[in-house]
Design goal:
Shape: globular
Structural class: mainly alpha
Radius of gyration: 30 Å
Strand order of the largest sheet: 9-17-16
Largest sheet: 3 strands, antiparallel
Helix content: 55-70%
Number of strands: 17
């Protein structure tokens, strides 16, 4: 429900300001929506916008039917010369894809959203050539696939990684054709023939839909030219639909009053207060029936935690805002921050025109610069929006971040860019609005630990982290006094949080005991996914390596896997193994392959991460003993194999649990079309349903979106579950639901103890330094143990899966893997469980 304006003004002294902000959000939402479409129209990419995609969905099936009918009629006519367009359509061989490409480019070059402009200046011949030319491009890519399939896969993967636009992909593919001594233009697809194909398709489309029209315009020398446009009526319909849709894509701001709390009986419309903000659902993307079920479930523990998150008051740190703004505008090249201006291409070195090696090296340098500039575009936009929001809200004493949940129960702030879950620079801009004094040596130590973590000292024992800060106290204070002159903080793992920590430590040193701290102190889990898997099956070995035991020494599963892989490569003794050992099988190389294991990571993903590691070393300036191509083909597969085997020997029971969940999902999907549901220990019902889509999809190399070979689909779900997708996603979704439950349980324990502020990022928990000792001891560790103490969560999950099998006897799913002997009570004494 929406409140009356008078009632709102009585709730909070800042409510009038909040109401004005929500009206501003509405105006910004509409402005951005229309501006996005206008810019897309200017660059002739309207088909990728919300309105363009809706139009494409609307006209796709009728046009496919019309093209197929035209082909059938023309072939049946028999006598006479076959139209060249018919031959070309048959040669392409895929009517759905051909029609999709045609419509996408017809919209791009013909449609205008302006109701005042009768038509764009688009000649019919140009529309025909543009649409048929795009069809020809796809035809040649498919030809290349038959001739050079492995090479094409590598090229497309590189295109995706670099996020190249269509135009650039096409340029590079034409160059690759020439390099492979292949002709780009297909025989029989010259300009005259492409014109025939395009004109035929336009005629078919116009007859079938009536949505385009031609007009004759007299130009110079009494020449009449045919021009094509979508009809005025059609443009009016699109304009009206855009007016209705503009409010769907809300630009969310922080609130300046505590967000409207969620309640068990109203799971739509929390956070904001007025009709200017479209109400959103407590669980994003959820169906109404599912929300109704949740409203009849006791969600008190879930809702209280989410409300506590969004009722935490924040403020913008003015020093960090000034530093970030200066770093950006000065192009200082800080890690994670794009430059304000594109990087300049280096000047050609002497001899570049005479020496092929010098030329090749220079071309590589130029490629790296161009590649960096392309990838920095989206990063630059994100940073600018973050700074803009911070400047907009810096004057407020307190701001708040409304939250919702994803389908697994993970909590997210609705505000993008500037929020407590943002990038390193975004997190450094925000601090708790309400400070708490640091009064004891223990509280001071927790602040020191967080600072050391940001400076890259998070592998040390806790006391050594404290010592590191004490030993570097002078350096920290010097950096804090002149952050734009003393740039030692740039070398830290998280440079902006490292600088933020230096500022806080300087404040503590100057004020002494009683210093009021506003900085959130984060402690992170040791590979949260493996912690939960180890707890599920009481895995003593896996639990040891992810710090579920009271071992006084910090364990590092990434370093353990690296050590095992190094040992096995040493035994291998091959030349490739020796090269791999020379480059080093490090913790950094193994971290990402280990992290993906709990989330249905595959060997192919491991292979990609290992190769990415070597590529990043080369891009960072490290000299490698072989070329990247040689490393990819000769070194990466061997290293990935040994890393994967090392992971499997370290987390044996976790692997068994993942395999069991995957096989159970496949079995359940054989018996039911209903979503799979399970309940977390705090009562949140998770629902997973991945339905098979109706086969109304096309595959293209250039025209399915920004990235590579894409599927375009009308996304019409059938009533049948997709067993493959369900099997792949069930294990990671189950584990994410458990780590989300742990976060909520920790918050609820803290609420029972007193008044705390919360900075939570899934498996990274933050509070004031004054609260961290109690929060870790009384909340984080006990909440985890309580989730598993006396419970067999995996067996409970099995019973919930059996509900989906009609008439199940219990034998349909094999028993869960046998648990080990890990004593979870040891978590209560583990300093490094979260640290």
């Amino acid at each position: 429900m929406q409140y009356s304006e008078r009632f709102l003004m009585d709730i909070h002294p800042m409510m009038e300001e909040q109401v004005a902000l929500e009206a501003e959000m509405r105006d910004m939402t509409r402005s951005r929506y229309f501006r996005t479409h206008e810019k897309a129209e200017e660059r002739e990419d309207l088909s990728s916008t919300h309105a363009g995609r809706n139009l494409l969905d609307h006209i796709f099936d009728p046009t496919v039917t019309a093209v197929e009918a035209w082909v059938s009629r023309t072939k049946a006519a028999g006598a006479g010369r076959r139209p060249k367009a018919l031959t070309m359509i048959e040669e392409f061989g895929d009517t759905r894809t051909l029609t999709y490409i045609f419509l996408r480019h017809l919209i791009n070059c013909t449609l205008t959203l302006s109701t005042y402009q009768r038509m764009k200046s688009v000649r019919t011949t140009r529309a025909a050539l543009v649409t048929a030319g795009a069809i020809h491009d796809e035809l040649r890519m498919r030809y290349f696939e038959t001739q050079r399939r492995p090479l094409l896969r590598r090229i497309v993967k590189d295109f995706d990684r670099r996020e190249l636009p269509r135009r650039r992909r096409r340029e590079l593919m034409i160059r690759e054709f020439h390099k492979q001594q292949l002709e780009w233009q297909a025989e029989g697809w010259d300009m005259a023939h492409r014109l025939q194909l395009g004109l035929a398709l336009i005629e078919i489309f116009a007859a079938a839909t009536g949505l385009v029209e031609e007009v004759m315009i007299f130009e110079r020398k009494n020449r009449t030219v045919r021009y094509l446009s979508f009809t005025e009526e059609m443009r009016k319909v699109i304009s009206e639909r855009m007016e209705e849709s503009a409010n769907l894509f809300t630009v969310y701001y922080p609130t300046v009053v505590p967000p409207r709390p969620w309640t068990n009986s109203a799971l739509i419309g929390g956070g904001y207060y007025t009709d200017d903000v479209k109400p959103y659902r407590f669980v994003k993307g959820s169906k109404v029936n599912y929300l109704s079920e949740l409203e009849n479930t006791d969600l008190s523990q879930v809702i209280s935690a989410v409300n506590a998150l969004q009722e935490t008051a924040w403020r913008v740190n003015p020093v960090m805002l000034e530093v970030l703004t200066e770093v950006f505008h000065r192009n200082m090249g800080v890690k994670g921050v794009p430059t304000a201006d594109p990087v300049a291409v280096p000047p050609p070195p002497p001899g570049v025109d005479q020496d092929e090696e010098i030329k090749a090296a220079y071309m590589r340098d130029c490629y790296i610069v161009h590649d960096t500039n392309r990838r920095d575009i989206s990063k630059r936009i994100s940073l600018i929006r973050t700074i803009s929001l911070a400047q907009r809200f810096a004057a407020y004493e307190a701001i708040y971040f409304p939250h919702d949940l994803d389908s697994r129960g993970r909590a997210y702030p609705k505000v993008p860019f500037l929020n407590p879950q943002g990038a390193d620079y975004a997190k450094s801009l925000l601090e708790f609005a309400r400070g708490k004094s640091i009064d004891t040596a223990e509280q001071e130590a927790y602040l020191a630990i967080a600072i050391a973590n940001a400076w890259g000292q998070d592998k040390l024992p806790l006391q050594e982290r404290v010592q590191w800060v004490e030993e570097n106290e002078v350096m920290l204070q010097e950096v804090a006094l002149d952050p734009l002159g003393d740039l030692r903080w740039l070398a830290a793992d998280d440079p902006f949080m490292a600088l933020r920590g230096a500022l806080e430590w300087r404040g503590l040193c100057e004020a002494g005991p009683g210093y009021v701290s506003h900085m959130p102190i984060h402690f992170d889990a040791t590979c949260s996914g493996l912690q939960h898997f180890s707890a599920l099956l009481r895995d003593e070995e896996g639990g040891f390596y992810v710090n579920l035991t009271a071992n006084p020494e910090r364990q590092d599963i990434y370093a353990e896997v690296a050590a095992k892989a190094t040992a096995s490569l040493t035994e291998d003794g091959s030349l490739a193994a020796k090269v791999a050992l020379e480059m080093g099988v490090t913790r950094a190389l193994c971290k990402r392959p280990v992290m993906i294991v709990p989330y249905s990571g595959t060997f192919n993903a491991c292979l990609d991460y290992v190769n990415d590691h070597y590529r990043e070393l080369a891009e960072g300036g490290e000299v490698l003993p072989l070329s990247l191509k040689e490393i990819r083909t000769e070194i990466t597969p061997l290293v990935a194999k040994h890393v994967w085997e090392a992971i499997s020997s370290t987390v044996i029971k976790a692997r068994a649990a993942m395999d069991w969940i995957t096989s159970a999902a496949r079995e359940v999907c054989k018996h039911t079309a209903a979503p799979i549901q399970w309940t977390t220990p705090d009562g949140f019902t998770v629902q997973q349903a991945k339905f098979k889509s109706e086969e109304k999809r096309v595959n293209t190399y250039f025209d399915g979106g920004r990235a590579g070979r894409k599927r375009y689909s009308l996304v019409i779900d059938t009533a049948k579950l997709d067993g493959r997708q369900m099997a792949q996603s069930l294990s990671p979704n189950f584990i994410h639901s458990m780590d989300a439950c742990h976060m909520r349980a920790s918050i609820n324990r803290a609420l029972a103890l007193g008044d705390m502020s919360f900075a939570m990022i899934h498996d990274s928990f933050g509070v004031h330094a004054a609260d961290m000792a109690v929060f870790a001891r009384e909340c984080i560790r006990p909440a985890f143990v309580e989730m598993y103490r006396g419970r067999d969560n995996l067996e409970k999950f099995r019973r919930e899966l059996l509900v989906n099998i009609p008439g199940a006897s219990g034998e349909e799913l094999r028993p869960v893997p046998k648990p080990g002997s890990l004593d979870l009570e040891e978590v209560l004494g583990s300093e490094f469980f979260f640290s």
